[in-house]
Amino acid sequence: xxxxxxxxxxxxxxxxxxxxxxxxxxxxxxxxxxxxxxxxxxxxxxxxxxxxxxxxxxxxxxxxxxxxxxxxxxxxxxxxxxxxxxxxxxxxxxxxxxxxxxxxxxxxxxxxxxxxxxxxxxxxxxxxxxxxxxxxxxxxxxxxxxxxxxxxxxxxxxxxxxxxxxxxxxxxxxxxxxxxxxxxxxxxxxxxxxxxxxxxxxxxxxxxxxxxxxxxxxxxxxxxxxxxxxxxxxxxxxxxxxxxxxxxxxxxxxxxxxxxxxxxxxxxxxxxxxxxxxxxxxxxxxxxxxxxxxxxxxxxxxxxxxxxxxxxxxxxxxxxxxxxxxxxxxxxxxxxxxxxxxxxxxxxxxxxxxxxxxxxxxxxxxxxxxxxxxxxxxxxxxxxxxx
Length: 387
Description:
about 25% helix
C-alpha cells in the first residue's frame, strides 16, 4: 500500500492511497489508507467493469452513509509515489472540509442537452452552496463516447460561473470500453458530474509541452461524428500525416502521435487534437472534435518537465494535494524520453494524484496532451477560514 505523505504527516486535506489492482486485499488496503478521515467524497481510479463495482460494494459499508463514491477506469494511474499501472487509487475528501453531490449525465451518444442542463441547474439549487466556501465541479466522462466537447459546453452554459475540471475515462491503450461508477452502478456512455464545496483554497494548474511548427494541413474530408479525419490536404490522412512528420506509415504509433501532435489554434493559443490510431482506410481517429475545413498545425513536443515545477511553485502556498487529470499521450512521451521517474518524483514532491486520461476538460474546453490539475491549499493565515 502507498499512502499520501500528507496523511502520514498528519496534514489536513484530501488523502490518497494506492493498492495493487490484482491484490486479494485490495478493498481492505484502500479502506486502511482512508481510515479516520470520515470522507464526504471518495474518487476511485484504475478499476474496470465488475471490479469497480466490487470495490464500491466492499467499501460502502465501511464509509459514512452519505459518502459519495465515484470512479472510472483509466489509461494509467497517478498514486502517492507517482506514475503507476495495474493499480487502484482512492482519494478521500474529509467531510470536515468538503461537501459533495454527484449526478449522472446519461445517454451521451443521444446528446440530451436540455435534460442535462435542467438536471445540472436543479443540482446546483438543491446543493445550496455556502458563499463563504469555494465551489467547483469535477467531470468524469466515457472517453470513447466522443462527446466531451458538447458536454463541457453544456456545463459551461448551465453553470457559467463554476470552475470545472475533469478527465475522460480510459482503457489502457486498448480503446475498447471504459467504465464509470456512480450511485453504486457501473456504466458506459455516460458522464458523472460532481459538485464539491470546500473551505480549503483551490487553484487550477494546467501545463502543456508542445509548440507549433510552420507546417499546416487542411482537413479536406472527415466524419465529424466519429472524430475521424479521412483526408489531409486532399490525401489519405495517415499517409499525409506521415509525410509531414517524416515518418514511415508503418511507424505511426501512439508514441509518435505524442511526439508530433496536430494543433488547432483558438484565439492566441494552440490546443492538441490528439490522434489515437490510424484506421484501415488510412484515416486518423482523434480524441477531440474535428470538422471539414479545419486548419491544423503540426506541433513538436518540448521538454515535458521544464516549467512544470515553476507552475506548481507559482501557487500561493504549497499544495496539500493536487488532483490531476493527465493525458496518456503525455505519459507515453515521457516514457519514450526516459523522463518517467523524473516526473514521478515531481508528482511525489507536490502531492499530485489522479489518473491518465483520454482527454482533459477545463475552462469550458475539451483538450488533449495536457496536464490539468486542481490544487488544494490551506487557507491563508489570518483569514476567517483559518481561525
